[in-house]
Amino acid sequence: MMYEFLNIAFIVFHTALILFNLFGWIWKRTRRWNLLTLTATAFSWFILGIWYGFGYCPSTHWHWLVQRELGYSDMPDSYIKFLIRELTGLDFSAALVDTGTAVCFFMALAVSIAVNVRK
Q1: What are the C-alpha distances in Å from 41 to residues 73, 86, 93, 106, 115?
Q2: 54-93: pLDDT as tens digits
Q3: What separation, in Å, do the N-terminal and C-terminal C-alpha atoms of the chain show?
């Protein structure tokens, strides 16, 4: 029962964080927080990634531990790939999903930096 709750909590939290990373720069009140979460994401991907693998995300790691306890296997390396598969049933290549994720991330980061500096 606890793992089922954690599974849902991770889906909600992680998906909300991704959406905030992509769109949190839109509202003036959240722009600094958006830049902070984007910076934390970059730190995780590129700095922690030195030890854990490029693109490392603690939330994905912990969520996969919960999924394993629930009996799931064959989890992709990417949370975005998992989310696309769960929401649409489509199974895109990891390279395509990773490229799309990186492009969206860097676009959001560039816009976030621009609107925060412009202020």
Answers
A1: 25, 23, 22, 11, 18
A2: 999 999 999 999 999 999 988 999 999 999 999 999 999 9
A3: 47
* Counts for the chain of helices (H) and strands (E), in that order: 6, 0
- Alpha-carbon radius of gyration of the chain: 15
Cα 6 from chain centroid?
17
Question: What does each C-alpha distance from 44 to 7, 53, 68 come to in angstroms?
Answer: 21, 10, 22
DSSP characters over 69-85: HTT-----S-HHHHHHH
Provide the whole-model pTM.
Answer: 0.93
Provide the residue type at 110 as one letter. Answer: A
Q: Which token pair is 43?
A: 């730190």
CA atoms in the 13 A half-sphere facing the CB of 112 = 23
